[in-house]
Amino acid sequence: MEKKKTIALRKRHIGPSCKIFFSHDPIKIVRAKGQYMYDEKDQCYLDCINNVAHVGHCHPEVVKAGAEQMQSLNTNTRFLHDNLVLYAERLQATLPDKLSVCYFVNSGSEANDLALRLAWQYTGHKDIITLENAYHGHVSSLIDISPYKFHQLSDAEQNQFVHVAPSPDVYRGKYRADHPDAATAYADEVKAIIDNVHNKGHKIAAFIAESLQSCGGQVIPPVGYFKQVADHVHKAGGVFIADEVQVGFGRVGSHFWAFQLQGDDFVPDIITMGKPIGNGHPMSCVVTTREVAEAFMSSGMEYFNTFGGNPVSCAIGLAVLDVIEKEDLQGNALRVGQYLTNLLEKQKEKHPLIGDIRGRGLFVGVELVKDRVKLTPATAEAQEVIYKLKEQHILLSADGPHRNVLKFKPPLCFTTEDADLVVEKIDLILKELEGALGLEVNNSAEMEKRRKLSTDENGHSGLNHSNEGAQKQRKRMKT
Known about the structure:
This protein is α/β, with parallel strands linked by helices.
């Protein structure tokens, strides 16, 4: 069909709240391969945001595995099938021994919903602690614990059993990179919530957090934060749920799971995964301890999922793990991610609009600000970058509470050449925007003080800036 007919049918039959990229001029994608997507005119777009096509769009080995299994059998898990147990065994081998029991479901939302059920049953408690700006899914139970979604509701409408802790953001959060122990300070905020909950006669069932906050603005928690939070939560009789739906399966490069960035002494009680697990096939999983699983069984209620863990899904999941290993995609995420981060750091020296570069592997955020001291969000400018890149056939997105963080989450087959291309285009776009705004790098004493904060182990660049390469044009940017 012509694109205008596709748009017309979408408006007629698809729910109006279903968001589409570039709504004023949406892209109609008809095929994809690797890190590239193609529209109906066969125009190629570089995909910098698709963290679902983890090993690359339409990877031939993944497609083959699914097709071959579908030709022979697909059924539910009430029948024995080798794929289910082989995949569970293979998946568990990537995790600490403590995390040994799998429940297969169909989406990240379904996984997180089940994780809450496990926590409630195991602890016998009700209250949940979540993080500011967190997003965990679209079903009712998860909207309740997703401030990214419910922040527009009044206090009366919010679930009274849900409590929101500050996001462990050391760039613009309550405790920043110059704090002597941000990890402890943020963990103490969780302890204060627990104490307050207990004073009201309630008890904590779980603390849930994305291992790296994605929609919240590519936030990298300080090392040690999760371990201290887990200690507080365990003392309160609760469990720790790590949401790996967007950041697992080698994306961070140095580790297979993002929670492992917090150190060997931290292991969650429950982890959830989705998106990349099936490279686009609807598949997800909850992995927990034997103790939690047995408590869930003790309720007397059978758990069954019609499609979760079916032979086709597990064949695809096995193929994804094979490709990650054979093509060293975790290693590629580490190498290319560091290369991309280094390129962006050089851009930060040139562009006053860049406030912070942060990330691990191929999970990178570029926070744009109009003022590096006041951290004034450059929201409109971030959107302009996104739209200008689209005109250059590069797909990137912006998120965070102020929609001012450029998000890199490409397929793990992303290359250094791809990184060169997108950073080159961002450089030109920022130069034009800064010229229109009359921005230049501030070389004040405050900036010199912040400049001394060098790159730390959490993937943050600190706040080091340079006044070289500043643009001095004084044209006003058109609104």
